[in-house]
User: Which sequence fits this backbone?
C-alpha cells in the first residue's frame, strides 16, 4: 500500500486519497476537506507551542459533564426532615406557631390572638408544664421583655435604663422569689416602693398582717400557703413586657403586663401527683417621679394602679394566699366567669378577684 507526501511532510495512504477523490466527486457532506497551505502553517505553529500536544488545528476538548449532586443532597435533607417530624412532631410544630406561641421566648408587643395548646398531654413532676402553652415560654425573669431605654421627662437615657431594670426587679421580687412564693414577707419588693406613698404602705402593712378582700397581699404578690400547697420544681414560666412613656409632672411611667404560670401540688400529696397550674396575669403602672416635684426616695417608684387575673387560685374569702383547687375542690359546674388565661391579646379587665367573680380557666 503506497502513500503520498504532503508539502508539510505529513503523509496520507493511497486508500485515503482514493476515498477523498471519490467522495469529492460524489459530493459527500462529510468528505474530508484538504487543508489550505495557510491552515497547515497555523496548525504547525500551534503544535509547536508548549502545552498544545498533538491537538488538531480545529480540534477541541469537550467539557466534562457536571455530576448532578444537588438532587442527592436535597433528597438526603428531605429524608432527615421527615425523620425529625416523626420523632418530635411537637417541637416542629412550635417552629411555625404564631407570635404568642409556646416557642416564642417573650412578648415584644401584644399578640393578635391566643396561643395554641395540647391539653391531652397531662403534667407530671418531671414535666409540670406539659400540655400547656407555657411549656416553651422562658423561665423567670427571662420571660419579661425590657425595651431599649431613651431619655424621658426628667430622666436621662441611663436613668431610664436603671429604672426599667428595677421595675423588672420588682416583678421578680414579688412574683418569682421562692421565699415570697412560700408565704414569706416580700421585703425586697416593698423596699422598691416609695416609702412616702402612705396609702400603699398602709395597705401592704394591713394586707400582710390581716388579709381581707379589700386588703389582699395577692393584689401585688404571689403567695402560697406552704402547709397546703407545694411548688413543683424550681421553674416558674413567664411571658410579658415592660413599656414606658412620660407621665404626670415629667415622671417616667412604666407599665408591666406579665403572666406567671405556677405548677403546684398538694403539700401532703404522698403518692398523689395531681398537678395544678395557677396562672396569674398582672398589670402594674409604676411612676418614677421627679424628686424636685414629688416626695420620694432615690431608687423607688410610686404605684399608680394594679390589676390582676388569676385562674386555679381559689375563690371565696381571701386568706392572703392562692388556694389551688385539688381533687373534689375542682369546679365541675359552669359557675364563675370563663377565661382563657393564656390569651394575652386582650387587656387585664379588673383589679382582683372577689367571691362572685371567680375566674374559671378554659385551659391551664
Assistant:
Amino acid at each position: 500500500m503506497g502513500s503520498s507526501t504532503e508539502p508539510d511532510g505529513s503523509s496520507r495512504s493511497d486508500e485515503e486519497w482514493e476515498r477523498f477523490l471519490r467522495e469529492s466527486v460524489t459530493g459527500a457532506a462529510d468528505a474530508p476537506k484538504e487543508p489550505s497551505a495557510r491552515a497547515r502553517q497555523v496548525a504547525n505553529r500551534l503544535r509547536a507551542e508548549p502545552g498544545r500536544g498533538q491537538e488538531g488545528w480545529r480540534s477541541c476538548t469537550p467539557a466534562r459533564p457536571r455530576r448532578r449532586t444537588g438532587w442527592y443532597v436535597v433528597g438526603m435533607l428531605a429524608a432527615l426532615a421527615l425523620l425529625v417530624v416523626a420523632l418530635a412532631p411537637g417541637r416542629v410544630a412550635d417552629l411555625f406557631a404564631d407570635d404568642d406561641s409556646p416557642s416564642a421566648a417573650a412578648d415584644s408587643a401584644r399578640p393578635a390572638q391566643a396561643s395554641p395548646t395540647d391539653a391531652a398531654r397531662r403534667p407530671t413532676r418531671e414535666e409540670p408544664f406539659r400540655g400547656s402553652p407555657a411549656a416553651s415560654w422562658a423561665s423567670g425573669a427571662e420571660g419579661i421583655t425590657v425595651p431599649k431605654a431613651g431619655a424621658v421627662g426628667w430622666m436621662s437615657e441611663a436613668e431610664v435604663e436603671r429604672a426599667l431594670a428595677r421595675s423588672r426587679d420588682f416583678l421578680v421580687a414579688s412574683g418569682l422569689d421562692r421565699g415570697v412564693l412560700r408565704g414569706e414577707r416580700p421585703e425586697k419588693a416593698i423596699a422598691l416602693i416609695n416609702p412616702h406613698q402612705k396609702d400603699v404602705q398602709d395597705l401592704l402593712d394591713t394586707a400582710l398582717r390581716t388579709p381581707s378582700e379589700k386588703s389582699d397581699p395577692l393584689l401585688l404578690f404571689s403567695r402560697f400557703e406552704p402547709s397546703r400547697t407545694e411548688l413543683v420544681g424550681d421553674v416558674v414560666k413567664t411571658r410579658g413586657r415592660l413599656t414606658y412613656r412620660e407621665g404626670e409632672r415629667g415622671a417616667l411611667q412604666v407599665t408591666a403586663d406579665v403572666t406567671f404560670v405556677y405548677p403546684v401540688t398538694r403539700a401532703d400529696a404522698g403518692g398523689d401527683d395531681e398537678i395544678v397550674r395557677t396562672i396569674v396575669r398582672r398589670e402594674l403602672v409604676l411612676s418614677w417621679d421627679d424628686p424636685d416635684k414629688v416626695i420620694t426616695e432615690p431608687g423607688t417608684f410610686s404605684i399608680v394602679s394594679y390589676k390582676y387575673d388569676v385562674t386555679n387560685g381559689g375563690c371565696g374569702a381571701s386568706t392572703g394566699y392562692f388556694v389551688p383547687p385539688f381533687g373534689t375542690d375542682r369546679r365541675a359546674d359552669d359557675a364563675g366567669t370563663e377565661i382563657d388565661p393564656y390569651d394575652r391579646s386582650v387587656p387585664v379587665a379588673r383589679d382582683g378577684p372577689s367571691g362572685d367573680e371567680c375566674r374559671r380557666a378554659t385551659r391551664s
User: Anything to note?
Assistant: Residues 53-63, 89-105 have pLDDT under 50 and may be disordered. Residues 88-361 form one domain. The helical segments are 14-26, 37-48, 70-87, 89-95, 157-175, 178-181, 187-190, 198-209.
